[in-house]
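Next comes the chain:
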Amino acid sequence: MNTSSGSTFMEKKHKLKVNGQYEFELTKEQLTDLDLVKTGSASYHLLRNDKSYHVAIDSKNFYSKKYLIRINNSKYEVDISNPLDVLIENMGFVVGEGALIGSIKAPMPGLILEISVSVGQEVKEGDSLLILEAMKMENVITSPRDGFIKEISVTKGSTVEKNHSLITFE
């Protein structure tokens, strides 16, 4: 990454990477100024430059900050970096942070809809592990690193509270 972009922590810019190739930086003020109205549990109406957009969040992963969204029925994968993430990346300290993660906990209370892995299975970073339904939204929980599944602490159909242990890695 080019560190001469002028992005510093003090500027409080969020970086969005769309479909792995297009990058945008937005300040807190730009985000606050969006003409965005919530129309459903995971849908919004956006008005920008006199154009109307229908936005829906299809899935989100709180650990990796990845979101699958639809804008006027076109699908996009969006990675979001907050100002601290941007500062750390610009300083060159982003190296293998997923290797430090030994377990995954529920980011919110919900219902386990699907478990895609089994104990002893090898997984790669980004592989789908399970689906957690919360507030009528399906949240795909993906692996933060390569590794092997040591323990699965939930079953399909079980309910979990926030911070409940879901999966442990070897």
In short: The helical segments are 28-32, 83-90. The radius of gyration is 18 Å. The first helix runs from residue 28 to 32.
